């Protein structure tokens, strides 16, 4: 008779559980589950559906090193965050207006007959010319005292090699072979000894002149060259010209400029340098370049020429008004606006502080009136304001040149000289004017020319 309560089985010596208690076989990824897996469910649970009728889809193993699993968020989103709409993607910026698609394919035939293709913009491509950024103040070129008088820096001085001694010590002699006798001859080393004392460089005399005295000499000779119309024409037209400093004659202005920059006597260097700059401004040349026989200093843009000439103003500040003649008297002499009439006219225009002086000649009124302002900074500002007012109306220096070219036409019928009032029908003279500069000295009367002198607006100094 069998024991109804058999003893539990003893563990084996190898430590492995018995076969009846072994774990069920591992489920295969590619096949159906093992037979005992379906019956292992409890009796109260529903049996799992069989998967033996389906063909499993093979799946590739995922490498967790390359594709790590996404960790679950530590803090799940709140209900308010879940209701929030998802963020919209940023809009893509439009393509730039300039790109490869704007180019046209073109071909050209070379000299050897081959055809080459290249790309270029179409002829009617709309370029957007963006303004260049302004230059820093220290990079803006200006013809100030730092650029004149021009001078070339001296070449760097190389130190002189020290003289080598004639008798050298035995250890400085020529390398000898052990079999040779102990006699050698001295020789110079391969490298020069640059141990000579250093001498400081000496600047040329043009760089060490007195700036204040140099500016006064330039203004003096600029007035001297412009106040006489006959002398000025001689310089501008060419021919033999004299040196206003030492009296020597030269074949042309170029020779005079070379002489003024390199005078034979250094005692008159300042006067000659002042004449050099005055000649360059008169001729429209570049005074910041060293004059040479190649005449490269004679090339200067027109706007710089005009700026250099308009920089020299007549002092006290004076505005020249043209077209102030009103007609002829019965005796044939010209008449025009007098001093009081011009002062009243300037007051009506809103300019005060100036004194009018009408100019007369042998035939009467010259149609020219000078308005002089105070010889200070306030007077210069008022004179410049009047000149700018006339310039904005196209009645400045250029406007007068254009109107004066048609002076042969009857002045009373010339629309550039006379305008008719639409209300009263009265004819009025159109006034032209500009700030007097050095080239206008020959237009002044002799008394005003004698009393006036020149100043530089670029280096304006009221106390000078």
UniProtKB/TrEMBL annotation:
Annotated signal sequence range: none
Gene3D superfamilies: XS domain
Domain XS: 310-442
Record's compositionally biased regions (Pro residues): 1-11, 84-98, 147-164
Chain segments carrying region Disordered: 1-103, 144-207
Name used for this protein in its record: XS domain-containing protein
Residue spans of biased composition, Low complexity class: 37-61
Ranges of biased composition (kind: Basic and acidic residues): 178-198
InterPro entries registered for this protein in UniProt: XS_domain, XS_domain_sf
Source taxon at top rank: Eukaryota
Organism: Urochloa decumbens
């Amino acid at each position: 008779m069998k024991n109804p309560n058999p003893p539990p089985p003893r563990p084996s010596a190898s430590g492995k559980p018995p076969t009846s208690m072994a774990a069920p076989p591992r489920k295969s990824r590619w096949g159906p589950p093992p037979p005992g897996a379906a019956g292992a469910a409890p009796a109260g649970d529903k049996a799992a559906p069989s998967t033996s009728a389906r063909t499993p889809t093979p799946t590739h193993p995922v490498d967790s090193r390359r594709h790590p699993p996404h960790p679950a968020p530590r803090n799940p989103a709140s209900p308010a965050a879940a209701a929030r709409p998802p963020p919209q993607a940023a809009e893509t910026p439009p393509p730039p207006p300039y790109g490869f698609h704007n180019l046209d394919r073109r071909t050209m035939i070379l000299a050897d007959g081959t055809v080459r293709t290249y790309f270029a913009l179409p002829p009617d491509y709309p370029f957007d010319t963006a303004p260049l950024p302004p230059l820093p103040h220290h990079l803006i070129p200006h013809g100030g005292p730092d650029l004149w008088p021009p001078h070339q820096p001296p070449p760097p001085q190389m130190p002189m090699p020290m003289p080598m001694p004639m008798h050298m010590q035995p250890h400085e002699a020529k390398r000898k072979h052990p079999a040779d006798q102990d006699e050698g001859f001295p020789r110079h080393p391969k490298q020069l000894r640059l141990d000579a004392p250093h001498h400081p460089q000496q600047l040329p005399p043009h760089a060490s002149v007195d700036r204040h005295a140099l500016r006064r000499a330039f203004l003096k000779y600029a007035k001297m060259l412009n106040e006489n119309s006959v002398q000025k024409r001689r310089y501008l037209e060419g021919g033999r010209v004299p040196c206003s400093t030492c009296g020597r004659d030269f074949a042309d202005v170029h020779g005079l400029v070379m002489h003024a920059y390199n005078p034979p006597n250094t005692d008159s260097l300042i006067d000659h340098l002042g004449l050099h700059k005055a000649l360059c401004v008169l001729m429209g040349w570049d005074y910041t370049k060293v004059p040479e026989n190649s005449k490269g200093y004679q090339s200067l843009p027109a706007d710089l020429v005009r700026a250099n000439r308009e920089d020299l103003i007549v002092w006290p500040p004076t505005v020249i008004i043209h077209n102030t003649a009103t007609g002829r008297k019965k005796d044939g002499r010209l008449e025009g606006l007098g001093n009081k009439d011009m002062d009243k006219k300037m007051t009506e225009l809103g300019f005060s502080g100036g004194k009018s002086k009408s100019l007369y000649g042998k035939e009467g009124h010259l149609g020219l009136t000078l308005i002089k302002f105070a010889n200070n900074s306030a007077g210069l500002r008022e004179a410049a304001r009047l000149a700018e007012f006339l310039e904005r109306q196209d009645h400045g220096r250029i406007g007068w040149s254009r109107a004066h070219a048609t002076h042969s036409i009857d002045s009373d019928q010339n629309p550039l000289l006379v305008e008719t009032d639409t209300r009263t029908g009265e004819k009025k003279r159109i006034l032209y004017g500009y700030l007097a500069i050095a080239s206008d000295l020959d237009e002044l009367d002799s008394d005003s020319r004698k009393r006036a002198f020149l100043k530089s607006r670029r280096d304006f100094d009221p106390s000078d």
